[in-house]
Amino acid sequence: ASDIPGPVKWFKPYFDCDRSNKWVFGATVPIPDIFPRHTQWRHIEIPTYVAVAVMEVDFERIDINQCPTGEGNPPPNRYAGTARCKNQTTECEPIHGYGFRRGGYQCRCLPGYRLPKVMRNPFLGEIVERAPYDQYRKGFNCEQISYLMVMTQNVERLSEIERWKYISRQSMFFNVGNMTGRRIDPTEVVDYVRSPDLKYKCESIAKTHPERLVLRGDVAFGKEIQLENEARTALRLANFISAFLQIVDPNDLFAEFRVPDRPLTEDQVIGEVMSAVIGNEKIQGCGAFFDRNQFINRTLFAPYAFRKEKNAQNFFVEDMARHIQKKNYLKNEWFKSLKVQWAANTDNLETYTTKIKIRYNSSGLYPIRYDRYPLQYKAAEVKHGYWTAPYFDCGGFHNQWLITYAAPFFGWDKIKSRLEFKGAVAVNMKLEELDINQCDDDYYVQNAFKGSHKCDRRSSRCVPILGRGFDTGGYKCQCNQGYEYAFNDYITYIDGQISEAEFEKLLKNFPSRYDTLKCRIAGAASITGHLLFVMLVTITDSERCWSAINSMADLESTRITALSKDPILDCRLVTANNNKSRRL
């Protein structure tokens, strides 16, 4: 399913009449099987089409892209070019999350232009779409920047005074502790995570200093948002197991020829964890870990599927119950925490209702309701899961820095009187997939790297850039209101990676252009004068000149220099004494 274009087939939007009564949109994927199954004759086992999986979503939740076609907006797109940005001074940038409605974009200034002084952020597309004709015709324009500069090429070392002036502005470099201190340097953490010595010395470090293989929890700030899709993959599998254990009863009795459903098998669980790894490239491993005596005919059962290389089509499955002597998963921090949390009370779980219909007969003449209609079961939500701190998987299948998310699943006890904790589904992601946020934030936000950006705080502000991974410089220095980007460039901001590199040179006393990486005060596009304003300034300056002469006339000798903008009334050097003052 990971091939391009792959077996995924997107179908046209349609109105789901008599069911959800809304416009839906989705995709289909075929389900192949090997026929015949479970034989030793490999030469006669061939894949065959047996079923299809369908997923439908609300069509109104899909964003539309009104920006012109380009690298990020390939054709065909029916709504391309319908944005109301003024292409002479602005360009369109899509904004995700608006759904199927107009205005899901913003109009930002082109290189060489800046926002008006009364604007702080780019023009929002929703406001542009609602603006009347007169307001749209006169407004939503960017002003041209005059006297553009070129980035310095012949870089020289700064003087010690200037050098320490810029270093002192970055307060995070003072009172910085080690990896476990109150404040840490993001460059130091990145170098430590990428150190190749950990892969070969992790066993000795685990014996002498095991705390060095675990980072602080606030180092992985933003994992709940950036890795939400991976966490929901584990939650989906956990909720599937919860629904299966609570709904399916092998001891049910039905009339006529109907037989009850079979219990959960080992092959089903192995197939589910394998599909989770295959379907998401960020997931390094996924496992379903059952508690003791909670899986049928097994004391311990914990299938774990994983990949050894990125973008590889080779996947592996291992039962962690076989490694119970070396690594007991029952003693993992996330497993013990979830078991203690849900040992006594399960009232906070979410109740889900399913309305199942089955075929009337084998030919599928028409659907009928299931005997128990509707069915209800309780399962966890994303907030009920457990996030671990970043740790190094020493001696495991990955041997690298990982983050684990675990979601619990539940089932009935032996007498079906109450729900109990049955186990957890855990997914492992690489720490390097997480972006570092170095921008400023509130004091209560638990981010180890907040405020460590190198932007000039007076003229610019830090804005995060997603997708750069666990590395410094994942931000841009956007000019503040009333400032402008003064360089002749294809971008309108100062890149965070350039700021980090130039500041690193500044620390090492190398030639650096860090002192030029700032925005300048926005000026007018041209200089024009008003006649009335010039006359008022001239009269005011002349009055000030003569009043100064009269006030100093009592002195023996006084020198007054008064400069006026009018050359006719330019009072240069006046020597006054008592006699001359009387004549005046």
TrEMBL record:
Domain of life: Eukaryota
An example molecular function term from Gene Ontology annotations: G protein-coupled receptor activity
Keywords: Cell membrane, G-protein coupled receptor, Glycoprotein, Membrane, Receptor, Signal, Transducer
TM segment ranges: none
Residue ranges annotated for the GPR158/179 extracellular domain, each copy included: 9-113, 387-483
GO CC terms in record: plasma membrane
Signal found in the keyword field: yes
Topology in the lipid bilayer: Multi-pass membrane protein
Compartment(s) of residence: Cell membrane
Main location (coarse class): membrane
This protein's record includes keyword Membrane: yes
Protein name: G-protein coupled receptor
Organism: Nephila pilipes
